[in-house]
Amino acid sequence: MTDVIKNGTIVGNTSNNIRIASQRRSLVQGLQQELDILDQKHLLRQRRTVETPSAPSLRADGRDLLAFCSNDYLGLAAHPKLAEALQEGASLYGVGSGASHLISGHSRAHAVLEERLAEFVSPYIENARALYFCTGYMANLAVITALAINKDTTVFSEALNHASLIDGARLSRAAVQVFPHRDYTALERMLQQCKTKHRVVVTDSVFSMDGNIAELAPLLAICEQYDAWLIVDDAHGFGVLGEHGRGVLEHLQISSPNLVYMGTLGKAAGVGGAFVAAHSTVIEWLVQRARAYIYTTAAAPALAHALLTSIDIISGEEGQQRRAHLQKLIALFRNGLHLQVWQGMPSDTAIQPVVIGNNADMLRVAGNLMDQGLWVGAIRPPTVPVGTARLRATLSAAHTEVQVLQLVQAINRLDQMSYVAQCFAEVA
Ligand SMILES: Cc1ncc(COP(=O)(O)O)c(C=O)c1O
């Protein structure tokens, strides 16, 4: 054993250092083994580096592609007016916020945006106030943990909820019960039997991997009957659904004092961040109590400033035209798809999944589309249940009809080839 001396001080000895180094190596080896297992199960994910603005025609990893995988449903992410507004925001407010909202990071840009968002959803939320968050993930953590006041709370979580809602429920330390997808009778039974003092029901509005919409009217009625909050995550509805783009509340014409609404601003709104809108007392509670709001640096004020232009576009004539075009594309995709082996899903939204089944087949199909220059999301477990790996095609108002037809024809062709291969396999 030899002492290791640095600047005249003994900082360790060689046998200790060798032991620590081999422990480190075995920790790394352990992770590598886990990665190898993921690889064997075809579950390794891969990032592609996009070199151009987010738009249907883009360049990624040096290749020109036609993309059907962003959530930029209205095609605003590369809108010149938004880029201009962002530059204006940076010259007015600088780049960083410098601190969390409750210290000195709450800028006038955040305050003005919150007022605008509250006004936007006010037809559906009484005494509405809004709170801007850095991301939808954080907004969901914040709102669930703050409303699940203590251990005397049960969170009822929809089976197909987004990961951020699931994580929020876990983090809350409340009891968590999962109710089956859109089965509100089962939820009602659970609420009847619930013994805790507080109840919080949580659901996506548009299910992010299926594209279908929750039936919020009966769900709200049940929540009111059992004195439960209803947190609605409208990540895929805000800006897209409803005549004025006010989201699922406008689409379904619903409103309730039990409702807590979360909309994201990095999808249809084209920028980034999210907001929670609810009765002003609920929002004040979040400001005081939501740790994911309090203990983080506020988003860049310039983003909030740019979002004002985004809301103007969404709520104005241009927004209506973009939504109308998107609806046309959705119909074109759905009517054009003729599948024999794979399965489309009953979705009327911009999210159009095609279920392939096992991971390896799905990767092959996504790879084949990629070879044709078509980039479609390849979704595998744990994001979706085992055996339901799927293509998640997302449509945007920035797509043309010709581009959507190109995708539909490519999927139909691959499905047909798969059908023929299956027939041969059965005969052989
Ligand atoms: C349903 C749902 N909720 C929340 C989020 C998180 O939003 P953000 O991307 O702003 O963090 C997403 C994003 O993918 C989502 O699909």
TrEMBL record:
It is an enzyme of class 2 (transferase). The modification N6-(pyridoxal phosphate)lysine is found at residue 267. GO terms for molecular function: 8-amino-7-oxononanoate synthase activity. Its EC number is 2.3.1.47. It catalyses: 6-carboxyhexanoyl-[ACP] + L-alanine + H(+) = (8S)-8-amino-7-oxononanoate + holo-[ACP] + CO2. Pyridoxal 5'-phosphate binds at residues 136-137, 208, 236, 264. Pathway: Cofactor biosynthesis; biotin biosynthesis. InterPro entries: Aminotransferase_I/II_large, AON_synthase_class-II, AONS_Archaea/Proteobacteria, AONS_Proteobacteria, PyrdxlP-dep_Trfase, PyrdxlP-dep_Trfase_major, PyrdxlP-dep_Trfase_small. Residues 64-411 form the Aminotransferase class I/classII large domain. Keywords: Acyltransferase, Biotin biosynthesis, Pyridoxal phosphate, Transferase. Its cofactor is pyridoxal 5'-phosphate. The keyword Electron transport does not apply. Substrate binds at residues 45, 162, 383. Homodimer. Catalyzes the decarboxylative condensation of pimeloyl-[acyl-carrier protein] and L-alanine to produce 8-amino-7-oxononanoate (AON), [acyl-carrier protein], and carbon dioxide. Belongs to the class-II pyridoxal-phosphate-dependent aminotransferase family. BioF subfamily. This is 8-amino-7-oxononanoate synthase. It comes from Undibacterium hunanense.
